[in-house]
Fold:
Amino acid sequence: MQQKRKSSGYKAVQDEDIHKAAAEDDVPIIIQTDIGAKDGQSKCPKCGATDISLNANTGFLRCNFCRHEFEPEKTNEQRTDIHDLKGHTIGSGASDIIADSLDILTFECSSCGAEVVINVNEATQGRCHWCRNTLSINQQIPNGSIPDMILPFKLTKSQAQKEIEAFVGKRKFFAHPKFIQEFCTNNIMGVYLPYMVIDINAHANFIGEGERLIRRYVSGSGKNARTYYDADLYEVEREFDIIIDDLTIESSSDKLRHGAADKTTNIINAILPFDAENCVKWDANFLKGYTSEKRDANISQLQGFVHTQAKDIARHKANEVLMEYDRGVCWSSEQLEIKGNHWKAAYFPIWLYSYQQVKGQQNKILHYVAVNARTKETMGSVPIHMSKLIFASILVEIFGVFLTLLIDSEYSWLFSLSGIGFYLYFYTKYRNKDARHKHETDTAASISNVRKVDNLLRRRTRLSNARMNGANNLSVGYQANENDILNTLVEQTPLSEFLKLK
Structure:
């Protein structure tokens, strides 16, 4: 096999040498995860045939000649206790991509001696044109196409079709008629997408102020009635150790564009998380019958995203030791020191339906409906018949204004917003532009060695807001402000003209 290999600048070690190497110097440690992997023929252990593929019903690899099934090999990487992580450790499949690495590899078939050429940008397997044996790429190459581990498909195509059909079926009333006419799940694709999986050992320190509710009462009567709150204001500090297990982030730069205007990539992010703990050792046979997208982002490009999400997780875990502050906490200082982290490159499976909506000559939007091929979690974007939705919203608005004039109540004005609410509800349900993976709560994490500071500052009375002003203990670092999301929804649609007139 012809292949160019270059040093990545990391120190490569075996599993048993991790702690020793970390103690010797402070350079990043790379764990070789393809030890024992061999390029060429991967043979059935029973009959020796090379035509092997995944049986999604069982999760086993199956010989397509003798039908023998065998369990995938577990990752040969030792799973280190996250509490013991020190410094920067990565799996060899997560090493930096070398721009000039060879993408065209030549193999010599071990059965007949013929040369087989494989373009690793398109496939990790090739079939000998003489003896028909399958040759696989199992050793890692520095172009991002071979990860440390892989999570096999668990959902069959027919199961995924049912999930997608059910999702779209609930959104047909306001769906664009051309989309309904062309919708067909026969062309859905099983795809392995690249991710980074990160374990983190960190220390967090949060300083700010929090409010505890003392009493809630109503002053005045009738239309003049107002609800007020009395609360005690405290100086608050929480310091703790935190471990984060299998934080997952996309390692395709295209899929990181969650707010892209030309495609609904946030949909793919929204079907996370995956059960990364069930990953197995890379084997090219898992890709047979499916497509894959290789990684194009290095760790240095992802560290900012990971640090932000890790801080989000720490902020939300801190709420477990803030239960008494029922009106919220406003953090003025948030520090997260990462003492150790471990990065692994992985392929995770999804079933993907895509539809390109053409609006005029230039405006095109690629809509996705994606299914997590492990958990059945489904999310999607459906093109909307805008004129139909706007017309229905106007009718609802007219009825709402009528109710506002008819009903004598201090809250009757809310009916005048019914048309806007109707529009935003269905627009959000069909497009799901704000759908995302809730990494702050869905990622496994635990805290320990908690240090608390709670000093009473003063009592606040006759507060009109139900929650503390400026409270941010439930916030997420990269998430847009809710008002900005609503403004975006309105401004980017034809309803904006109607609202401006109103």
The CA atoms of residues 224 and 410 lie 9 Å apart. The two ends are 70 Å apart (CA to CA). The longest helix spans residues 386-406. Confidence is low (pLDDT under 50) at residues 1-25, 480-502.
